[in-house]
Automatic annotation (TrEMBL):
InterPro entries: MFS, MFS_dom, MFS_trans_sf. The keyword Disulfide bond does not apply. GO terms for molecular function: transmembrane transporter activity. Pfam families: MFS_1. Residues 43-464 form the Major facilitator superfamily (MFS) profile domain. PROSITE patterns: MFS. It is a multi-pass membrane protein. SUPFAM superfamilies: MFS general substrate transporter. This is MFS general substrate transporter. It comes from the Eukaryota. One of its GO terms (cellular component) is membrane. Signal peptide: none annotated.
Amino acid sequence: MADITQEKAEIHAEENIAHAQSILQQYEGKEAKKVLRKIDIRLVPVMALLYLLAHIDRANIGNAKIEGMDKELGLVGNQYNIASTVFFIPYIIFEIPSNIVLKKVRPSIWLSFLILSWGIVMTLMGIVKDFKGLVACRVMLGLCEAGFFPGAVFIITNWYKRSEVQQRLSLFYTASAFSGAFSGLLAYAIAKMDGARGISGWRWIFLIEGSVTIAVGLVVPFLIIDSPERAKWLSEDEKTFINSRLIADGVKSSTEEGDKFSWPLFFNAVFDWKVWAGIIMAWANAVPNAAFKFTMPAIIKQLGFTSSEAQLLTAPPYFCGGIAAWISGRLADRYKWRFPFVSGPLLLLTVALAMLFGMAERVKQNVGALYFAIILAQIGTYPLLPCISAWTGNNLAPSWKRSIGLAWTLAAGNFGSLIGTNIFLDKEAPRYQTGYGVTLGFICLGLLAAIGLELTLKLRNKQKEIISEEEVRAQYTDEQLDKLGDKSPLFKYIL
């Protein structure tokens, strides 16, 4: 009886494989693009909008500062830097736990909860009375926002082949660049409400932007797609096509063995050398990104502009950074090569920081060149994180390992944000020798990590090519290969 049951199961599995192969052939070319377009339309814009809100809500403290927040709250010394920094402590701590919850709870439910939570906290920042209240709100904001970005990255990596991920990540990550542009314009407009109903302009920034986030959070459960299986707008054949291509590409396991959580798998992800290379590269992004996110309005103001002009002039650098992220994402996926799109932006960033440091003492003579350097710095910064995220996620399997590894890369990478928010000291303006010096050091580390990762992955791929697929499948079952994940002889690394 057991033999008959086993035989039926094998026949059923063979039929499923044959059907999947038939569907893959049927959806080649234009049909595949149509299905991907359906996913793009429903997934990427939603994630982009949410990431836009997340970045506006975490960074608008910089806009509030130049509208008088620090003076009204009586901030002294480095208290503003502390308020900016404490956001990242819970943000770092809770990224991995959040992605573990995301694997067990429907993404639409968990992400909606996070969005509503940080929208409420953002609104409460508009009524703080002192430094302690500001710090408390920033801590809670970091806690509530912690899970969104690693969760969003993981969700996107679950829908697309490895060679299709970065341009999608770039599109929604571009929203973080546009958030800088939009935040400045929005803050400029909202600050005009200064005194309305007896409320300061900087308070209106938090109150209005927080309320918008809450409103969006209420409709998010109806917008986020949990999985292909739950997508009512996909036919059964389209669902089969998506799952089959992901299995063929190594993104998804063909057996249940490849998608089981275990503590050995957890520690394997956390201590994976590829993840640590991604973390070091993430530091090279996080240090300058955080520094500019919280100090750019002040740096531009020091070029001789008024507060209102500085708010408006933050828009073009962020806009150019967003365009650079989108272009680099498209090219990286087209050529299936990540390394140049990490090393190239890091070199651009080096040039920009050298200009800002070298000409800082001659501000009046070099206003145009310094502003160009600020733009160039954003062009170098914003392509980095989508490429680092894609490169890391591309080379981690199975699904649980990718979820934990991505969350840890982004969490540990944010230690760079803790540094970036504290190295641009007001007393060192306009040269900011500590800020620029430390940032350049991390950029050099990032370049070395990228070179090391590229060379090592290339060597590992050559080693895997020695054994043919037929020989591998003769030695291992599908369950064993899925359990091996990215260590499987059949798993080829993306360079």
